[in-house]
Amino acid sequence: MHDRKRILVALALALAAPGAGAEERRDAPGPRAAAPAGDRRVPLEPTAWPFTAIGRVNVVQGPSHRSHCTGTLVGPRHVLTAAHCFFDGRLNAWVKPHQVHFVAGQARDLNAGSAEAVDLRLAPGIDLRAESRPGRDAIGPGMVGRDWAVVTLKDPLALKPVPWRVLPGADLPGSTPGAVVALAGYAADRPYLPVIHRGCSARIDAPSAGLLLDLCESMSGESGAPVLLLDAEGGAALVGIHTAVTQADRVGTAYRSASGIGVAAAAFAPTLSEMIRP
């Protein structure tokens, strides 16, 4: 069972929340659009890189209060994901590292490796406390670009990490001929097998510097999912992470959208370079 947490950004953007589950939360309605015509996400067997390095970030807040997000191994012991995954609204506080566990390349009951967390490094200045938000289950626009975190694992995983790439102002894939944009994550409708929307698009530094807009299908559970730039030679780079959906439509206890917003790599690249040394 997985608790679903939907947070509204300035009452206009819904964070791509952890997986749906046991404790349904009633939140203020955000903008609603017709469900996307057809689902462009397809199930993915994560047997090859870079998908072996993408996994579930499991968070246990209590005996019947669990959630998951999507994270990417960016170093042998470091996982990049969305910061809001680690905020426990019931306690109005951040969870502790021992409550977090990363499972890479999970495919049903199989995986490519797993490890417990020993540290959570949040983006500087992020504040999700109730008293700092403009409304219940809402955060201000100034927090959107700070919605990232780096998990340090207890043990290194013998997997190839995904590199990050800073592309200021890029309109992808158009500004990178031959490349393909993809969003892959563990959505609420397939929590133990990743789905991928391959062939979508993204704009870096939009609507403002340090942010990312994507036209990729996503669903609750894909908070922190990597926005990938794939090339014809099999290369891949993470250009940002997906954290929120726009024009969200409710599907059961989850939310689905064909567009979203997130954090561009320029926002977290200096921290990753500091933490992950050759």
UniProtKB/TrEMBL annotation:
Q: Please, which domain of life does this record's source organism belong to?
A: Bacteria
Which keywords does the record carry?
Signal
Which residues, if any, are the signal sequence? 1-22
SUPFAM superfamilies noted in UniProt: Trypsin-like serine proteases
Q: Which PROSITE patterns match?
A: TRYPSIN_DOM (PS50240), TRYPSIN_HIS (PS00134)
Could you tell me which residues belong to the region Disordered?
A: 20-41
Q: Does the keyword Signal apply?
A: yes
Q: Which residue numbers delimit the Peptidase S1 domain?
A: 36-277
Tell me which Pfam families the record gives: Trypsin_2
What protein am I looking at?
A: Peptidase S1 domain-containing protein
The source organism is Methylobacterium crusticola
Q: What is the lineage of its organism?
A: Bacteria, Pseudomonadati, Pseudomonadota, Alphaproteobacteria, Hyphomicrobiales
